[in-house]
């Protein structure tokens, strides 16, 4: 028993920056920068980034629902009394009226123009102040420089990735999944692969993906390999001149079948890639 208690205490001091909650595990990356990693099977559908500056807190992410937003805010209160003033909404999938709307009313939403249009297309009306931008936006919060880049088309329309140059931290949101197959059902595959090249070229020391654990640029390279293999196989079956259901049965990528999420999202991911890549031929 004494040995067990000693081991638990030792683990606490070895991993002081990891905090578990219902929907996220919170990992301190650098001073003032925390990754909220979505727990598999929870209500968190995507990772988030928390930036604590001297005067305000900024959250970056997407797929916000009331339960995950509350958990983020409750966790932030344990870290700092400084309020959340800005939420960088990295993308929004059209037709999902239950996500990305129940955000703290005093927080300003910062998003790409495409994401703002996607929000406006829903029947719900957003209550927050909104700042939207075209290609890029750089803002300084305290001593932290935050650079946002609008990819226009990638995982969806208007995906934004966030880079903190002084901390050398890249938050890709759902443009990159680390050793996980995520949702690609709104993807623009030709543009997406170009964005992956851009993000890999940043050579960030820390990369916070849309799903999966914090990694570095090597994680992006692994996802690029998966992405190329997936699209190459889709292109092969589109060349058979068969309908989508037959093509789906002829699709074969056994080396990735056991990747977390691959089977869950395969139907939506394959059909999106099939019809988009077929149109490009």
Automatic annotation (TrEMBL):
Give the record's family classification.
Belongs to the metallo-beta-lactamase superfamily. Class-B beta-lactamase family.
**Keyword hit for Signal:** yes
Keyword field: Signal
- Please give the SUPFAM superfamilies that the UniProt record associates with this protein: Metallo-hydrolase/oxidoreductase
The secretion signal range is 1-21
**Mind telling me which PANTHER family this protein's record contains?**
ACYL-COENZYME A THIOESTERASE MBLAC2 (PTHR42951:SF4), METALLO-BETA-LACTAMASE DOMAIN-CONTAINING (PTHR42951)
- Domain Metallo-beta-lactamase, which positions? 45-211
What is the designated name of this protein?
MBL fold metallo-hydrolase
Q: Pfam families, from UniProt?
A: Lactamase_B
Query: Looking at the keywords, is ATP-binding present?
Result: no
